[in-house]
Amino acid sequence: MLKQIVKPLLSWYDGHARVLPWREDNHPYRVWVSEIMLQQTRVEAVKPFFERFLNALPDVKALAECPEDTLLKLWEGLGYYNRVRNMQKAARVIMEQYRGEFPADYEKILSLPGIGHYTAGAVSSIAFGIPMPAVDGNVLRVLSRVKASYEDILKQSVKNSLEKEIKSIIPGDRAGDFNQALIELGAIVCVPNGKAKCDICPLAFCCRAKEKGIVDELPRKKAKKERRLEQKTVLILREGERVAIRKRPAKGLLAGMYELPNLEGCLGEEEVLGYIRKWGLSPLRILPLAGARHIFSHVEWQMTGYAVSLEETEHMDCDGMFFVDAKETEKNYPIPAAFAAYARYMDIVLGQERYEER
Question: Is 356 a residue whose pLDDT tops 60?
């Protein structure tokens, strides 16, 4: 039944495709960067990051050679930092095995670090015209509705089955456009949140879910596990114009990023002052800050904050912390958006907010 969607879908895409910076040039490097950025991130949020990333790292060689702190700073605010670490690993493989040229081969693209079936399909079809499917959440939603399928779209077997169906109908002369059209339809018409816009959908004529009146019931997916809650006490330790930061461990959540000092639990003022004195620092004033929270995929941080003014002492650096000018952290040290609420008390902003304000 899916054969009948090809022509109307492409016709719709020709007239309704959004103008996006990564669509201006189908060079494989640009396509790859955009696809990795768009994973778990909104299109509008990606735009400024994409431009700045490409300006700083215009090709595979530049990405392969980029120092880690610079790389993470460029990614600051996008989250899921292993995405960009894997991109650099893949760039180094491309430099070593393919002389810096992105391989025009689906299986070779798939074998690169951090690239799964979706990204391999997207890059190979958009950049090289290879007729391979690129099935993301948008595509799964559209097709589950067109087919009126109650199968769990989070099951790998369901995704594999849809990939096979799509591969059988992808037009060889417009593989990239077809994949992008399906994704685009799911993003702006057959939407994930809110009411699907069935009245303007080019596939309404063959949508079984619309015919049966069950569009809002689909797609089906297994409920996610509840996030683990963690209490954190975040500290802005300031000595004059300098603030304390520290580097997180090389493995685990936010690996290798810089952070504001923080303690486990929701601590009171006296407990915080006790820790600061144990570190050999001399607190002058402590000011409670507004609470904040940050949601990761599997964890939610519930944060209490304090700003603490310190007396300058001979040995300020301690417990893995070191003091730098507050503005220097904005330029040179990648600090995750989890701390954005407290970064404002340092008169700096992070990630997407930093780009919006400038």
Answer: no
